[in-house]
Amino acid sequence: MVDMASLVAALEDETAALRTLVEPLDSDGWATMTPSEPWTILDQIGHLAYFDEQAVRAVTDPGLFAEHVNRSFGALGGDVATLHRERGLAGPETLDWWAGARRSMLDALTDLDPDERLPWYGPPMRASSFTGARLMETWAHGTDVADALATTLPVTDRLFHVADLGVRTFSWSFSNRGLEVPEERARVVLLGPSGTIRTWNDGSPSSVTGQVEDFCLVVTQRRRVSDTSLVIEGETARRWMEIAQAFAGPPGPGR
Predict the structure, then answer these.
(1) Within this chain, do residues 169 and 116 fall inside the same structural domain, yes or no?
(2) Which secondary-structure segment (H or E) carries 108?
(3) What does each of the 255 residues of the chain score in pLDDT, given as a tens digit?
(4) Do residues 87 and 210 share a domain?
């Protein structure tokens, strides 16, 4: 069984890594454009804060969360950057907002049963998957921030949580684009910075092999597969890596 305490601790550590990047920023730094134009660093942190607030609502008041999805979020078409900008918060205020929302979310998630179903913006998710998805979002948007600042986030074995989500969204990556989902899955073999190796779908003829960071950059659409060192073998793996998407929402444009 998944250990929720360990998963929440990993999310907390990933949060701290991103905070280290943004805490020293001045007003110009907060206004820096990220690769996800037209989002600035301020927008990236506001995005995380907004969805952390909604995550707390999904855990503590599912009915109120459903009302939010049907009215507020649906009416805006998911334009979270606008939702943040309307608050008129400066960088430090946005960071405080995120810190409070993140703390509340971590506290709400810690004692959940890993298999408890939580409502979200698509199908309900198990608490363990929900927490892994928040870690993925933190790392992906943190990567945008790091790219904007010409630096990098620490590469840790926490990325295996992101990679696991990337593997489990294989079918979603195809169906989200209206494509037929291949019957076979691709074998995935990834090496972490500690030397740990993880394998998924062992025995499949098509495969993706390489560093866990490279795989995570591809499935979160932060890098094109051609800009990584991943070794792709087989048509299924090739097609998947061209469209892989570990996050919800319409097909992303990629880099």
Answers:
(1) no
(2) helix 91-110
(3) 678 999 999 999 999 999 999 999 999 999 999 999 889 999 999 999 999 999 999 999 999 998 888 776 554 445 555 556 556 899 999 999 999 999 999 999 999 999 999 998 878 899 999 999 999 999 999 999 999 999 999 999 999 999 999 999 999 999 999 999 999 999 999 999 999 999 999 999 999 999 999 999 999 999 999 999 999 999 999 999 999 999 988 887 777
(4) no
Give yes or no for a contact between 159 and 213, defined as CB atoms under 8 angstroms apart.
yes
**3-class secondary-structure state, position 126:** strand
As a whole number of angstroms, the distance between CA 154 and CA 124 comes to 31
d(CA 12, CA 27) in angstroms, rounded, equals: 26
User: In whole angstroms, what is the distance from residue 36 CA to residue 144 CA?
Assistant: 7
Distance CA(233)–CA(248), nearest Å, equals: 27
Q: Which strand ranges, in their side-by-side order, compose the sheet holding 207-211?
A: 197-200, 187-191, 207-211, 231-233
* Claim to verify: residue 49 and residue 167 sit in the same structural domain: no
pTM value > 0.85: yes
Pair (51, 170) in one structural domain: no
